[in-house]
Design brief:
alpha/beta; two-stranded parallel sheet; elongated; 4-stranded mixed β-sheet; Double Stranded RNA Binding Domain; Arc Repressor Mutant, subunit A; 8 helices
C-alpha cells in the first residue's frame, strides 16, 4: 500500500474540515430524542437514605423489589454500584417501607424482614447461597461449611464465602450470621467491614 505523503495528509485534513460538524440544532435534537428514548425504555431504580448506628445507610429498589443496601460509603460510591443502564431517582416515599423496617431492626423491634427482593443480577448459585443464609435465625450463626452442606455442596465452602461477599442487600439478607469454622468472624463486605459484622451480631445477641 502506498504511503500517504504530507500533501495527501493535508488534503484529507482540509476535506474533513470542509465537511464540518453537524449544526448545533441537529445535535440538540439528537440529544433530546436520546433523552426521551432513555426515559421511556430504561428501567427505573428508586433510592433513598437513612441515618443508622452504622452510619448513613442507602437503599435502592427496582420494580421487582429491594436490590441494594449499603452503608459506610459515600453517596457517589453507592450510586456508582447500581445498574448504569437504569434511570436513578431519589424518592424517599418509594423506599419508606424498607426504611421503616430497618429502623425497627436497629431498635431491636424486628428480627427479620418482610420485603420483596430483586436478585436478578446474581447467578443461580449466588441466589441459592443467599436463600440458604436467610434460613439462619437472629441470634444464631452458621459456618460457611454448614451453608455449603445445607445446599448439598459440602466442598463448596470457599464459593459460598465468595457469594456471600457479593450479597447486594446485607442486613436484610443476613450474611453477617455466617462465620468461619474456627469460630472467627470470617469476612464481611458491608461498609465498615468486620466492625459492622460484630456490631450486628451483638445487636442480635449472637456475639458478646
Amino acid at each position: 500500500m502506498k504511503k500517504m505523503t504530507r500533501r495527501d495528509l493535508g488534503l484529507v485534513k482540509r476535506l474533513r474540515a470542509e465537511r464540518g460538524a453537524p449544526p448545533a440544532e441537529a445535535l440538540e435534537g439528537s440529544r433530546a430524542r436520546l433523552k426521551k428514548w432513555f426515559a421511556a425504555t430504561a428501567p427505573l431504580i428508586q433510592w433513598g437514605e437513612m441515618p443508622s448506628p452504622l452510619g448513613t445507610l442507602f437503599v435502592a429498589l427496582t420494580d421487582r423489589g429491594l436490590c441494594a443496601v449499603d452503608f459506610g460509603r459515600a453517596q457517589a460510591d453507592f450510586l456508582a454500584r447500581l445498574d448504569r443502564q437504569s434511570r436513578l431517582e431519589r424518592d424517599t416515599a418509594s423506599v419508606r417501607r424498607v426504611i421503616d423496617q430497618l429502623h425497627e431492626y436497629f431498635s431491636a423491634r424486628r428480627v427479620s424482614f418482610d420485603l420483596p427482593v430483586d436478585l436478578s443480577a446474581l447467578t443461580p448459585f449466588q441466589r441459592e447461597v443467599l436463600a440458604t443464609a436467610c434460613r439462619i435465625s437472629a441470634g444464631q450463626v452458621w459456618t460457611y461449611r454448614r451453608i455449603a452442606e445445607a445446599m448439598g455442596r459440602p466442598k463448596s465452602s470457599r464459593p459460598v464465602g465468595q457469594a456471600l461477599a457479593h450479597n447486594p442487600i446485607p442486613i436484610v439478607i443476613p450474611c453477617h450470621r455466617v462465620i468461619a469454622s474456627d469460630g472467627t468472624l470470617g469476612g464481611y463486605s458491608g461498609g465498615s467491614g468486620l466492625d459492622a459484622k460484630r456490631w450486628l451480631l451483638r445487636l442480635e445477641g449472637a456475639h458478646s
